[in-house]
From TrEMBL:
<feature type="domain" description="EAL">
    <location>
        <begin position="1"/>
        <end position="250"/>
    </location>
</feature>
<protein>
    <submittedName>
        <fullName>Diguanylate cyclase (GGDEF)-like protein</fullName>
    </submittedName>
</protein>
Length: 250
């Protein structure tokens, strides 16, 4: 209950925070993009993870407001970053059903001056589960605006290769669970390599997530991934810190 009443207060106040985690080019080591990850610093309960409060926001009808907040804050931050570094934000399936999303995106881009090509939306395969056609329409509207689409957590849940045929995703993010087991597990290695080949042939960028060790990094490279993300490079950090990391260069 404290979470439910607190969430409305948090959306109006300054308890929510975006952290940013670099997505690094395997070729050259530049930061190509940063993923925005929301944090809630509750005055009494302390830090509440998004895995706990996002489902509550969805059930309370607050997910649109939350997505709007994330979108705007992420665009404000990225508009202040040097160069062409993109910002990637996570869009929950519930938000993708809202026909207001494309106009919210356009408003955030206009207000902040961020070019559409520097905004990437990460969606998961579950958006296609109970699709009545609405989600597809909204996805195509978003693509027309010129922003990028990433398929997140790929390989878990409901993977179907037909999504890759029907939508021109710019980026494929393979789920961290495949990288977690890769050093010990020949099956994970085979799957990661196959996904790397597939995505390259479809001209998609590929992000290997959850990279924590040099060995995992070597496997991502061998599988032909274009990008890597994980604690080996940086944990999610504040906007001030991400600017320092971008400016420091490879
Ligand atoms: O940062 P990790 O911290 O614990 O994120 C946990 C989960 O919460 C991930 O599945 C991530 O995609 C999701 N998440 C993080 N930030 C956001 C956000 O701003 N919006 C949505 N919808 N999900 C987010
Ligand atoms: O579902 P999504 O891929 O958006 O969520 C990303 C989640 O992974 C976030 O909770 C983020 O904090 C976490 N994360 C990012 N890098 C690493 C890593 O190297 N190791 C682990 N265990 N988690 C990571
Ligand atoms: Mn993500
Ligand atoms: Na992911």
């Amino acid at each position: 209950h404290e979470i439910e009443t607190g969430l409305r207060r948090a959306l109006d106040g300054d308890e929510l925070q975006l952290m940013f985690q670099p997505i690094v080019a395997l070729d050259g080591g530049d930061i190509d993009a940063c993923e925005a990850l929301i944090r809630w610093n509750h005055p009494v309960l302390g830090s509440i993870p998004p895995s706990e409060f996002i489902p509550i926001a969805e059930s309370m009808g607050l997910i649109e407001a939350l997505t709007g907040w994330v979108l705007r804050q992420a665009c404000i931050a990225a508009a202040g970053w040097p160069g062409e570094v993109r910002v990637a934000i996570n869009i929950s399936p519930a938000s993708l059903k809202s026909h207001d999303l494309p106009s919210h995106v356009i408003a955030a881009l206009l207000e902040t001056g961020l070019p559409a090509r520097r905004l990437e939306l990460e969606v998961t395969e579950s958006i296609f589960l109970d699709d009545s056609g609405q989600t597809s329409t909204i996805l195509r509207e978003l693509q027309r605006i010129g922003l990028r689409l990433a398929l997140d957590d790929f390989g878990t849940g409901y993977s179907s290769l037909s999504y890759l045929r029907s939508y021109r995703f710019d980026t494929l993010k393979i789920d961290q669970s495949f990288m977690a087991g890769i050093s010990a597990n020949a099956e994970d290695r085979a799957i990661v390599r196959a996904i790397g080949n597939l995505a390259r042939d479809l001209s998609m960028d590929t992000v290997a997530e959850g990279i924590e060790t040099q060995d995992q990094l070597a496997h991502a490279r061998e599988a032909g991934f274009t990008n890597v993300q994980g604690y080996l490079f940086s944990r999610p950090v504040t906007n001030e810190r991400i600017i320092e990391l971008i400016e420091a260069g490879p």
